[in-house]
Structure formats: C-alpha cells, structure tokens
Specification:
Blueprint lengths: L9 E4 L24 E3 L5 E5 L5 E6 L3 E6 L4 E7 L10 E10 L15 E3 L3 E5 L5 E5 L15 E6 L11 E4 L3 E5 L5 E5 L14 E6 L11 E4 L4 E5 L5 E5 L14 E6 L14 E5 L2 E5 L5 E7 L8 E9 L9 E2 L6 E5 L5 E5 L14 E6 L14 E4 L3 E5 L5 E5 L14 E6 L5 E7 L2 E2 L1 E5 L5 E4 L7 E11 L2 E2 L3 E10 L11 E6 L2 E6 L14 E3 L5 E6 L5 E6 L4 E10 L5 E10 L17 E5 L8 H26 L1
C-alpha cells in the first residue's frame, strides 16, 4: 500500500522527563526532528516517537464502506471490500475495520491531490486535480463508467466522460449508479438505470456516461443528489428542483407515486415564496428533505416526515418544524433513514427511522420530530462538528479536530474502530498510529513503550561508530502495517567519554552485610568531589557522589568505622541498565581534619570508582587500588608523626 511521502514521523531525543510530555501533533511537522537528537555510542538514550495521526478533512460513506481524505490529501477507506471498493488492490471477504490507505499509485500525477469523493453500495468515486473522475469497485451494471460491465475493478479507472465535461464540478452516487456535473453545466449519469434513474428517457443500463435530459433552462446544473431508492435530484440554474427515477414511495415530490425516466419539477405550489429556491436536497431512504432559502426544511415521500406524525407518506413538500434557535438550519448529506440538521445555534438536530441507533439517543426507537442530538460525548476540540453524513447503517461526524466518529451498525467494520461491534454512542475511528519498531542505522532499538499522550519511547542501541544515522520507524494503524517512515540522519551517535551515567537515579554502597542507598543523579562533567553536595542515606551515612569530567565516579563517605571493607557500587539508570564495580579499601585512623567528614573529624573514608564493568574500566580500577594504597600510606605516616 502506497502512502504519501509527505507523511512524516516526529523524532525527539530526550534526556529529562519534561521532554517526554509533548503532545503528538495533529498533522505531520515540517521538520521531522524537533529537539536534541544525540546519544552515546554505547546506547541507552531514550527517544520519543510521535507516529502519524490522521486528521480527516472530508468523508464520503457508502452503504458498507467509507472513504475519508486527510489533511495531506491522502485517501483512506474502511468497511467491506468484497468487490474491491476499498481501493487497497484486490478483493476480500474479510472486512477492514480501521482506516487503511487507498492505493492511488496508478493515477497520473496530474490527478493528485484528490478533490470530491463519493461512494455507492460497492463502488468508490473520486475527482482528481485534473478534473477527471476515477472509479473502482464492483462494476455492476457498468457502474465504473469505462464501458465495461460486471467484472470488479480494483485499481482507480478513469470514467469515460466527454472532454466538454472536464473538469468535473461535482459527483454523486447511489447503489449501482453515479452522476457527475460537468464543466459544460450538463449532468451525466452511468450504471444501473432501474426505474429510469439515469434520467435519459430510457430504462437501459449504461456502462458509459449519458446526458440527463434536463431542460435547457436548468443548465448549468448547480447541485445533484443520488437518492438511495434510485431517485435522482438536481437543482438547475433556473432555481427549480428537478426529480426523476423510482417513485413507488412518493419520493419524487410531484404528487404521484408513478416512476419516470426524465426530470420534472418538484411540486412546490403549496410552499411560501420565501422557501424558494431550494439550496440542497437529501434522501433518508424513501424520505426526501430539501433546504429552503428561508433556512427552513421541507420533506416529502415515505417515512418519518419530521412533523411529529407516525410513519407516513406525502406526495408534495411540507414544513419540518424546527426550534426557532435552529433557523436558519443547514441540511446535512443524507443517505440512510435518518436526517440531520446543523442549526444556527450550532446544535445538531435529527429525526428518522433510527434502526441502528443512529439518532444517538441510545435507543433504536423511531424519532418522528427533530430532536437535539446529545453532543456530550464529543470532545471540546471536536466541536463544533463541521460535517455530518447519515449513511445507510451509520451516522458520521467529522469534528473540528479532524476526528471521525460514528454511531450505528458495525458488522462490516464501518465505524472504523478496529471492531465489528455496534455502538449506540459516537465512537471514534482509529486515527493514531502505533510504533511497532524502530532502527538506528539499521540496528533495532529496544524498550518501545506507549505513553499516555499518544507518543512512544524507545531506547537507542549501541553503535559501532560515532556520527549521524537514519532512523526508520515501523508503524501500524489498527493493527495493519503501514509504509515505514525514514528520517534521514535522525540520530547522531557521540563517542563515549567515560561511564554512561546520564539519567542515573540510584547509587548503592554495600559494606559487609549493610546496604546504603544514596538517592542522587549522576552526570559526567559535574564538579569534582570536593564541590559535590552531600547526600544522606536513610541510615545516616553521608557521602558526596559525583561523576567527574574525566569519566571517574567519586564517592566520599563519612560515618564508616575503621577497618577493611569490600564495596559494591551500583548505578541503575532509566533504561534499567545496572552498572557496577567491586573493590576493597582499608579505612585507617586519621587525626587530620577532613572536610568530607561531617560527623567524625578523625575519620576519612574515600572511594574512587569507575562505576562500570566495561573493558575500558580496567585502568580505572587499577587507579582505585593505587588511591587506596596512597590513603593507607598517608594515614600511617601521619600516625608516626603524632606518636613522636
């Protein structure tokens, strides 16, 4: 699956905890590296990885699948893929229950980025930047529009529209048919012509686009809608709403239930002049709803008409009563059995069949009147909702923050949350990537951990040489592996200058059977031991602990009795790496004043350790022995002078 090369991964190299608290960006950053990006060649540096987070800008649900466009122009899909409608190359009886990238690699570069989108029962349609329409899917009744019929098409294929129609201005789709408004102002349809749905004065299916027989006054067409029940609608330049196709349930709005294969005006004789012209139209199965110029809604057909009456039919438009605060209202796109309106008060109002719980009231009970939708489950970042589409089994909500949430059935994975369990409350599609692996110059990092803020941490491995290396991140979305992301020279290895103690959290000294724990932080380059702060164990032992610029780690302890001891000094760093050294020191009496001894002035207990067991520590361990011998000699000479 091909993903846009613009998709980036943010990589942060961190030393302190504060740098781990950044929030994953809503979109890919211009620079893939933000912050420190260096670490020792012995490894152990913690880095923070922010995998891509999809921010959707447009959604187009069909009957059993969904198309969504992200902020970088890439197209994603989820749901059923029985006939290749997801565009991921091939067909599958297994549903895709989370967003996966649509493979657009076969499109010409002139077609990118994608503009308008539409989805039907088993097909997907997009308008390219070059103004041409591309389709893929079942191709039943010639629904791809390339002159072929029946055989599924799994790669985007150009619809055979006349040159005069390019660039296409709008597309719409229903079960097995589609429409396109051309640059010439004409409306073209192709695919199934059941009930005269193509509007060309016939009922013959067409695998190539045919012109819908609209009157000259209606050209150029301003709006088109493909109804779920094979009924077509168009608003012409003359301001008239035309309808055609199947009419068994009074959905054409001409006062009859007789189907027709040519466009004719909807009967608006009973409406106030302020309602006209209609500005958009949608269908909830056999119920048709139109938005008037007065900001009111008008409905006809069969279903819950929105006026509080039981399931019924009406052959001509009638008013849908809305709360005063909601007017002027905006009708949202409708495909299924439930209608949605965005009020002037920014509240969502809905009514209809509610067969899959899409009304959002937690039930499957029909709602005969517009009722305010409970938006409590939407985050503050998602509000106000900027796009709502009532699909056949689901209702979809596109938030201001680019999230897509859905209510309703989910047997085909149409919610996109990685499951097939239905939901009666808004449930978010998976849009956050998961880091599954990372390499530094081809060597795998370790300890990949998810953080509450959506980021991930990993620990850099040891590397043979110093210098910059590429960071390659493997990531998944909904458990599906995505194209790995390479950050060129994303991490720089530094030559090791001494023990790697950056971020150490604990120092432990074991004396005989006693263990003394010093809570401290060791960092190479700190001041010498004489200037180090004094830390105290819980049992009263005081010490100065530091890592010097030359790589040595020095402990100066006070409160230990004269005698010979075996010391084990252990550091535990943030990567849970244990670094230790074992050695012996003899403590003797010293009558000289020692600034390191804050409890007993006549005792001086000093240790010098390299703090590790790596090969380069051998020489430093020898220095420890020399230092201990020198200490014993000094104490002996001092004692002899005092005896005189």
């Amino acid at each position: 699956m091909k993903l846009s090369s613009r998709k980036k991964l943010t990589v942060l190299s961190v030393v302190g905890l504060a740098a781990l608290l950044g929030i994953a960006p809503a979109t890919a950053q211009a620079s893939p590296i933000t912050g420190a990006n260096t670490g020792s060649v012995i490894g152990g540096t913690t880095v923070t990885l922010s995998p891509p987070r999809l921010e959707f800008t447009d959604i187009a649900p069909g009957w059993l699948h969904v198309l969504a466009k992200d902020s970088e122009g890439d197209i994603w899909s989820w749901g059923a893929n029985w006939t290749g409608q997801l565009g991921n190359i091939g067909t599958s009886a297994t549903v895709q229950s989370s967003p996966a990238p649509v493979d657009l690699s076969d499109l010409p570069t002139s077609a990118l980025p994608i503009g308008d989108m539409a989805a039907s029962a088993g097909n997907s349609y997009v308008v390219g930047a070059n103004g041409r329409v591309y389709a893929w899917g079942d191709n039943f009744f010639g629904s791809i529009g390339d002159g072929t019929t029946g055989t599924p098409v799994v790669i985007p294929t150009q619809v055979d529209l006349p040159n005069s129609a390019i660039p296409v201005m709008q597309i719409a789709a229903n079960q097995s048919s589609a429409f396109a408004v051309g640059a010439d102002g004409e409306l073209y349809g192709w695919g199934s012509n059941q009930g005269g749905f193509l509007g060309d004065n016939s009922t013959t299916d067409s695998p190539t686009p045919v012109r819908v027989d609209l009157p000259l006054a209606a050209i150029p067409v301003e709006f088109v809608h493909a109804g779920a029940k094979n009924s077509g609608y168009a608003i012409g330049a003359d301001g008239v709403l035309y309808s055609w196709g199947t009419n068994f349930q009074w959905q054409l709005g001409d006062g009859t239930n007789v189907s027709r294969s040519y466009p004719a005006p909807v009967d608006v004789s009973g409406l106030p002049p302020t309602a006209l012209p209609f500005t958009r139209v949608g269908t909830a199965v056999a119920l048709t709803v139109a938005q008037g110029s007065d900001g009111q809604l008008y409905s006809w057909g069969t279903g819950y008409l929105g006026d509080g009456t039981p399931y019924d039919n009406r052959g001509v438009p009638g008013l849908v009563p809305l709360p005063g605060a909601a007017i002027p209202a905006t009708l949202m796109p409708v495909l299924g059995g439930t209608a949605f309106v965005l009020g002037a008060d920014q509240e969502i109002y809905t009514w209809g069949l509610n067969e899959a719980g899409e009304v959002g009231d937690g039930t499957r009970n029909p709602q005969p009147s517009p009722t305010q939708f409970n938006s409590a489950s939407f985050s503050a970042e998602a509000l106000p909702i900027r796009q709502i589409i009532a699909g056949v089994q689901n209702s979809y909500f596109l938030g201001r923050d680019g999230t897509v949430q859905s209510i309703g059935g989910n047997a085909n994975g149409t919610i996109g949350n990685g499951t097939t369990a239905e939901s009666l409350v808004p449930t978010a599609a998976i849009q956050n990537g998961v880091v599954s692996g990372v390499t530094f110059g081809g060597v795998a990092g370790t300890n990949i951990l998810a953080k509450p803020d959506g980021t991930f941490t990993a620990v850099s491995p040891a590397f043979a040489t110093a210098g910059p290396v590429d960071v390659v991140i493997q990531w998944t979305l909904g458990g599906v592996a995505q194209t790995p992301i390479t950050v060129a020279n994303g991490f720089t290895y530094l030559a090791q200058q001494g023990p790697s103690l950056t971020g150490a959290t604990t120092a432990v000294i074991t004396v005989g059977q006693q263990t003394h724990v010093f809570n401290t932080v060791l960092s190479p380059g700190d001041a010498p031991v004489e200037a180090a702060p004094i830390v105290t164990t819980t049992d009263g032992i005081e010490a100065r602990v530091t890592a010097e610029a030359n790589g040595r780690v020095t402990f100066a302890a006070a409160g230990l009795a004269v005698g010979s001891y075996t010391f084990t000094v252990t550091w535990t760093d943030e990567a849970a790496k244990s670094i230790s050294a074992n050695y012996s020191v003899t403590v003797q009496e010293n009558s000289g004043q020692d600034s390191n001894n804050t409890t007993e002035a006549n005792r001086n207990d000093a240790l010098v350790s390299t703090g590790g067991v790596e090969p380069y520590l051998a020489a430093a361990l020898a220095a420890v022995a020399l230092a201990a011998g020198a200490l014993a000699l000094l104490a002996s000479q001092t004692r002899r002078r005092n005896d005189r």
